[in-house]
Amino acid sequence: MNILVCVKQIPDPAGPQELNNDNTLKREGKLILDESDSYGVEIALQLRDTAGEGEVTLISMSPGEPSGLRTALAMGADKAIHVVDDTLHGADALSTAKVLAAAVQRAGDYTLVIAATESTDGYTGTVPAQLAEILGLPSVTFAKSIRVEGGKVHVDRQTEAGYDVVEADVPAVVTVTAGVVEPRYPSFKGIMAAKKKPLETLAVSDLGLDLSSWGQNIVSVEDAPSRAAGEKIEDDGEAYLKIVEFLEEQKVI
Amino acid sequence: MDFAVPDEIQELCRAIGTFIDREVRPLEEKHREELLEHGVTAHLVGVAREIMHKSVEAGFYALGMPESIGGGGLGELGMCFVRETVAGAGAWLSMLMMGDLPFGPNHMLYELGTEDQKERYLMPLMRGEKTTCIALSEPDAGSDLSGVQTRAERVDGGYVLNGKKHYITNAPYCDFMQVFTRSEHGHSILLVDKPTDGLEIGKVQRSMGDDHLQTEVFFDDCFVPEANLVGEEGMAFAYAARFLSNERIAIASTAIGVMSRLVDLMTEHAKSRVQFGRPIGDNQAIQWMIADSLTDLYAARSMCYDTAWRADAGENVMRHVSMTKLFATEAVGRVADRAVQIFGGMGYMRESPVERMYRIVRVMRIAGGTSEIQRLVIARSTGMGG
Description:
The complex is a heterodimer of chains A (253) and B (386).
Chain A: E1 3-6, E2 9-11, E3 31-33, H1 35-51, E4 56-61, H2 67-75, E5 79-83, H3 93-106, E6 112-116, H4 127-135, E7 139-149, E8 152-158, E9 163-169, E10 172-176, H5 188-194, E11 199-202, H6 239-249
Parallel strand pairs in A: 1-4, 1-6, 4-5, 5-11, 6-10, 7-10
Antiparallel strand pairs in A: 2-3, 7-8, 8-9
Helix pairs in contact in A: 2-5, 3-4
Chain B: H1 7-30, H2 32-38, H3 42-58, H4 76-88, H5 107-112, H6 115-126, E1 132-135, E2 151-155, E3 158-169, E4 176-183, E5 186-193, E6 199-204, E7 214-225, H7 236-244, H8 246-272, E8 274-275, E9 278-279, H9 284-312, H10 318-343, H11 345-348, H12 353-360, H13 371-380
Parallel strand pairs in B: 1-4
Antiparallel strand pairs in B: 2-3, 3-7, 4-5, 6-7, 8-9
Helix pairs in contact in B: 1-3, 1-4, 4-8, 4-9, 8-9, 8-10, 9-10, 10-12, 10-13
């Protein structure tokens, strides 16, 4: 079973985050694999290993060295496609989806495209659905488990109340909820082996895309408003009633 | 000379950091009260052993052993970075996760072990199925190893051991011991299974580091088969010098990891602790302590990387190792002392991480050869006698 996994390389969230003059995030230095992608990589590896055949191919669009991709290769992915192009600076979610879709179409036969529900640096959460739309594939979101059987993908789809049992024809785009599996660690042997795995670097021109209409201008960046002071309830013996009333007003209970 | 950390080592250290965050810290938090109250108890050694098994599974164990037997094949420089990462994480329960001396496999068993010894002892160590210990120290044999009085008498099919050891780290929990003993042809090393008739583990000798890892060990007519002799009789100290001396560079890189953590903690505290209306780090007295600590850290690191790099290049680094061990362990003592001073009352309290570090780094100037022995090695390497 061939599986494509869309992953993102991001600046280390533990480090200081800075903006460029055009208000985009500085993506200098060593980029790391977005932790939220490690769950999708793990699920893809498990599906491949259960099937006993096929490959896991990583697809990523990001500037710089493929350091994050190497991490996922060290976990056990078979190969990677890395789209690097200065013209992609400032690309918005839809543009990113178009680039990823073009890369997916170059990747040969596949059963699934797996992605995280959202990235840790951008949080738009829209790229996988846009990708599915561009590719004309079913989109299944928030998977907590994935099984492929009889030409269909069976997904337990996490909801606030529990989970839905969903099935769709393959190929399909499936997003994986963070925390649903324990991603394996890249061992030293895996890290060394990753250096020899195929990694194809592509420019936008290799994907045959029209560059004229993408990008976005971030006009300004403002700090989030600070949280307003809460309401203090003195306990006169019946404070619980006021708390219950407050929670009812908020429709929490 | 290029000490830039290779990409693969950076990647490995990041993965180990993630492992510690995910597998070790939650357990530290869970057992926090027990750790603070009693130190590393037998129960917590069991927890550390579970972490060790996960480390084996993740491929982080025995990274300094050859790849041909399942190790990572890392050289001394690579191992310095790994040890710094683990020690710098400041987690009590990560102590077994690397399989370093004395707990895990070593090059002596790899180079000198018979096929049978490798199968029974080395490979189970590589797989994390067994742990071991080095049974050397005795009441009359500390720095002077020739003072070892434990004696192995030759008998039919093997040896009979009699004697007493003390301060033997991991003795209560290990599966076999590497015992230094007198024998007919000089000092030798025997592998002694645990349990064995005539082998008794004595009382736990609580240490300043607050662990329950050291005990006395008694041999009372303890039979050890001939097949358990390591290498040749009479070669114990030559083997120790050749195969176990990397313990010194291991201690130095561990000291550097702890020092790095201490510098981070004291700097953070100096910037955030406000007294007399301003951060204490605005005072020159505090700034100097931090500046001196950073300088100690930089010097120790530079020495350690240079020594490890030379060792990997095949140079004889005996003098370099001693200089590095001497400087790094003395430096970490100075830095820990400054850290407690900067933390003030907080630094004296058990719940403070610097209080614990202050205590555990003290042994680094003693274990693996005291600072004075390192100075002797350095001075004698010039040809001076004494």
